UniProtKB/TrEMBL annotation:
Keyword entries, A-Z: Methyltransferase, Restriction system, S-adenosyl-L-methionine, Transferase
EC number of this enzyme: 2.1.1.37
Sequence similarity: Belongs to the class I-like SAM-binding methyltransferase superfamily. C5-methyltransferase family.
Active site: 87
Phylogenetic lineage: Bacteria, Pseudomonadati, Pseudomonadota, Alphaproteobacteria, Caulobacterales
Source organism, top-level taxon: Bacteria
Name the record gives this protein: DNA (cytosine-5-)-methyltransferase
SUPFAM superfamilies assigned to the protein according to its UniProt record, in alphabetical order: S-adenosyl-L-methionine-dependent methyltransferases
GO biological process: DNA restriction-modification system; methylation; negative regulation of gene expression via chromosomal CpG island methylation
Pfam families (UniProt xref): DNA_methylase
Alphabetized PANTHER family for the sequence: CYTOSINE-SPECIFIC METHYLTRANSFERASE, DNA (CYTOSINE-5)-METHYLTRANSFERASE 1
Catalytic activity: a 2'-deoxycytidine in DNA + S-adenosyl-L-methionine = a 5-methyl-2'-deoxycytidine in DNA + S-adenosyl-L-homocysteine + H(+)
Any GO molecular function: DNA (cytosine-5-)-methyltransferase activity
InterPro entries, alphabetized: C5-Methyltransferase, C5_MeTfrase, SAM-dependent_MTases_sf
């Protein structure tokens, strides 16, 4: 549903969220599990919009460019605006044109709307911006400084957390969450567990005026994770395995150290599950395809597949044999913390793209329950939403 016309006077219950760069709506799912509710979402991509609508029947979605939205499209006065803006230009894996580049520059389309809401007396009390940790260093740190500066000028106390989905789920997925709050409740005097050395270094590079406005937001540490990759895989009989030649071709790409790890897993005689990822490495000046393995019970960070090179594989060592296959779309959804009821696109590649771009649900929930709701003075009523 595209919603046009003036929505600005709409009455909004506590915990209302505007979800920008919504993709498949995983931020909204994490926020909803902490009692927030999405008033309106926006995404430019038709496939993402289909996935969003399939899973959020009652949430108005504005499908289109964030630059085409006006404040009249945004309902009422939201408590929170969430932006998971595109990361390709700030990612360590990308060309790093930064927030001035075409795709990641969409952040400023979002920020223009935040300024517009403030001009109309409808500024959200909280803003959360999710991105890759590459934002800490892209453009020599100027991108991170620009975002923190914008929040500071907008009247928000600003701070950031680096949260790795691996604390909640069997996927290593470090992400940066920059949070602006009109009130500073929840800030610690010094860095805590969600402030990595690279985040502290980025803070040190900020302009003095922004540093003076900085808050070390704190969150409780989650309970120890008790789920590993093997526990969320499909049954062996339900998936397609590579034949012997395909398996050999794949294993031939592994570097000696990774191959040795696999041999040790085989020698253990136990069933061992490895996550594997194909990537291009430069070795002695030459680019080579490598298969990287991990046997620590975690999948590597899911990415959007491009030309098959960023597909993830599952290797199972058992009874002296290695079997290999691709990770399925449903398994990637589980690695993002989604319930089985989440409707994935019909095509595997669309499902992998959707999940590779998404934010992990329990991480959003932890941020919402541990920082956003308390800072907004909202009480999360278990199973009943939120109260002021
Ligand atoms: C990193 S993904 C966020 C995914 C989302 N958090 C989720 O959990 O699925 C960035 C999203 O921004 C969308 N996007 C990119 N440029 C945009 C623009 N100019 N206007 C609106 N959406 C845009 C992409 O289609 C993509 O879904």
């Amino acid at each position: 549903m595209a919603i046009r016309g003036d929505n600005s006077a709409a009455k909004v219950a506590p915990g209302g969220v505007l979800e920008f760069f919504a993709g498949g709506g995983l931020a909204g799912i994490g926020l909803a599990s902490a009692g927030f509710h999405t008033l309106m979402a926006n995404d430019i991509d038709a496939a993402k919009a289909r996935a969003f609508r399939a899973n959020h029947h009652d949430t108005p979605l504005h499908e289109g460019d964030v630059w085409d939205l006006t404040t009249a499209d945004l309902p009422g006065t939201p408590d929170l605006c969430w932006a998971s803006s595109p990361c390709q230009d700030v990612s360590l894996a990308g060309a790093r044109g930064g927030l001035e580049a075409r795709r990641s520059g969409a952040f400023w389309g979002f920020w223009r709307l935040m300024k517009g809401l403030a001009d109309e007396g409808r500024a959200p009390r909280a803003i959360a911006i999710e991105n890759v940790v590459g934002l800490l260093t892209s453009a020599g740190g100027r991108d991170f400084a620009a975002v923190c500066q914008a929040l500071t000028e907008g009247g928000y106390r600003v701070g950031a957390l680096e949260m790795d989905a691996g604390l909640w789920l069997p996927q290593s997925r470090p992400r940066l969450f920059i949070v602006g709050l009109k009130d500073a409740a929840g800030a610690e005097a010094a860095p805590g567990i969600f402030h990595s050395p690279r985040l502290i270094a980025a803070h040190d590079r900020l302009p003095e005026a922004v540093k003076a406005n900085w808050a070390w937001w704190s969150l409780p540490a989650p309970p120890r994770r008790n789920l590993d990759l093997a526990a969320l895989l499909e049954p062996d009989a339900a998936v397609d395995w590579f034949d012997a030649n395909q398996t050999q071709d794949l294993l031939a790409l592994s570097a000696p150290l990774h191959r040795a790890r696999l041999e040790a897993a085989l020698a253990s005689g136990e069933r061992r599950v490895a996550a594997a990822f194909r990537r291009v490495r430069t070795e002695t000046g030459v680019k080579v395809q490598r298969l990287e393995l991990r046997l620590d019970g975690l999948a590597g960070c899911l990415r959007t597949p491009s030309g098959g090179s960023s597909r993830q594989y599952v290797l199972v060592c058992e009874a002296g044999q290695v079997r290999a296959r691709r990770l399925t779309g449903r398994e990637t959804a589980r690695l993002m913390g989604l319930a089985e009821a989440y409707r994935l696109p019909g095509s595997e590649s669309a499902a992998l793209k959707l999940m590779g771009d998404a934010v992990a649900v329990p991480v959003v929930r932890a941020l919402a329950e541990g920082l956003l709701a308390p800072a907004l003075g909202l009480r999360v009523l278990k199973g009943e939403g939120i109260a002021a």
